[in-house]
Design a protein that fits this description.
The structure is a single chain. It is built from 23 helices and 2 strands. The chain is mostly helical. It has a two-stranded antiparallel sheet.
Length: 445
């Protein structure tokens, strides 16, 4: 029934359908402007890498919009009501009809709560910048950020329709072998806020601002590039070195100390194939192929994702793959890789075990080659970020590694660090780093 269908819709989608705004006059105008712009000038974004390298510029420009946000938010509620937006438009002498302004507000209201957060306000600014002749963005940084956002949208809009579909997003990623089906589908689902199957410019800007590390609540920089997180998320701020503590497993366990020592030795003796954040991004397809190959080995052994692989079977697999290491070492690697303490390894933990074995026995000739290539890439990536050579990563090292090429937003990198730091110790170990890389490749096994 119609009632049931409406009940199944997300809040914003339901509101749009009830109000007859499925495809409003404002959206149609925006789409025409985007189509025209695509014809008039080529996009400055040529690849996903070029977009990633501009995230810090986006963050800077978007953050400069906060002053305007606070000026419009006369109630100091940290959100903007439609009446506040209308009053600001009146004071600026905008020619936008009230009906169109109301539609712009509705299309900016991603969460459907009838008030605009800061990131939703960015959508409003984007729309007004495109449709309102009297609207001018106040600074060059803001202009540059909004130009990048439009160019990024046009990079994905392969069909030139002014909206994005899932196939276009995946095609754009695959054109230069920069993305993978599962991960790009997830990115599309992040963008498609109303579940309509298409992504509008507003939805794209909302998601892009998150990728750039922009928060609805302000985040202030501390000295020496130390960043505090939004207190509403109850995330603790800590100094990148003085508060570092080694994970208890690494401090007390023999294999943990062996892993740490091997990492430190490798840092001194090997150059490493990954010497930049950009090089790591380009390695993601290699990593994924290797992870998939390892998963195939895992499944070919008849272990299955549910049953897992116990120590005896791991020992048999290492022998079959050609490892020449002691049973004792394999047993220790098994224990260290069994993160959930189930007594069996999952496919992901099996791959982690291969990383440890290659680290501890670097002379191994592992078959298939794709697996060893991926494992070595993980170790090289970890080595790139571990500038101190101590065998673990702190927040400052991760920020420095990504920022060295202007390739990352500090706030976004801090969040990525917290996602990696699974035990909240203040440092990221090799196994935590591996799990993050594994997830980046689109496999949540």
């Amino acid at each position: 029934t119609i009632a049931r269908a409406l009940h199944m819709l997300p809040l914003r989608r339901l509101k749009n359908r009830l109000l007859g705004r499925e495809h409003s006059s404002v959206e149609k105008r925006i789409e025409k402007i985007l189509i025209s712009r695509a014809k008039d000038r080529p996009s400055s974004i040529k690849s996903l890498n070029s977009l990633l390298l501009k995230l810090s510029t986006l963050e800077q420009g978007f953050d400069e919009c906060r002053r305007g946000f606070h000026n419009v938010d006369t109630s100091n509620s940290n959100t903007i009501s439609y009446e506040e937006l209308k009053e600001a438009a009146r004071k600026q002498g905008f020619a936008t009809a009230e009906e169109d302004l109301h539609l712009i507000f509705a299309h900016s209201d991603i969460d459907g709560h009838s008030e605009l957060t800061f990131r939703e306000f960015l959508i409003t600014l984007m729309y007004l910048n495109l449709v309102e002749e009297k609207f001018n963005l106040p600074t060059e940084s803001i202009n540059q950020a909004f130009d990048i956002a439009v160019d990024a949208f046009l990079y994905f809009d392969r069909e030139g329709t002014g909206v994005l579909n899932k196939e276009e997003v995946i095609e754009a990623a695959f054109e230069q072998k920069e993305g993978l089906p599962d991960s790009m589908k997830k990115r599309f689902e992040e963008m498609d806020a109303d579940g309509s199957g298409i992504v509008t410019l507003g939805e794209f800007v909302y998601t892009l601002s998150e990728w750039a590390g922009v928060e609805d609540n302000e985040i202030e920089d501390e000295e020496d590039e130390e960043y505090t997180l939004d207190v509403n998320l109850h995330r603790a701020s800590f100094n990148s070195r003085t508060a570092v503590t080694t994970r208890s497993a690494l401090a007390n366990d023999e294999i943990g100390r062996s892993v740490r020592s091997a990492i430190q030795k490798r840092a001194k003796t090997e150059m490493g194939s990954i010497r930049s954040a950009d090089a790591l991004l380009m390695k993601l397809p290699v990593l994924t192929n290797g992870f998939n190959a390892a998963s195939s080995v895992f499944e070919e052994g008849g272990h299955g994702k549910e049953a897992g692989l116990d120590y005896t079977k791991l020992l048999a697999e290492t022998q079959r793959l050609g490892y020449k290491c002691s049973d004792t070492l394999v047993e220790k690697v098994f224990v260290f890789s069994d993160a959930d303490n189930r007594g069996v390894l999952s496919a992901k933990e099996f791959v982690l075990a291969q990383v440890y074995l290659i680290l501890l026995e670097p002379s191994q000739d592992l078959v298939p080659r794709e697996v060893s290539g991926a494992c070595i890439a993980v170790l090289d990536a970890f080595k790139y970020f571990d500038t101190s050579g101590e065998g673990d990563l702190d927040r400052g090292e991760l920020v420095k590694g990504f920022k060295s090429e202007d390739g990352g937003s500090p706030n976004l990198i801090v969040r990525r660090f917290e996602e990696m730091d699974l035990d909240h110790s203040g440092v990221v170990s090799l196994d935590e780093f591996f799990k993050a890389v594994y997830a980046w490749c689109g496999d949540e096994a």
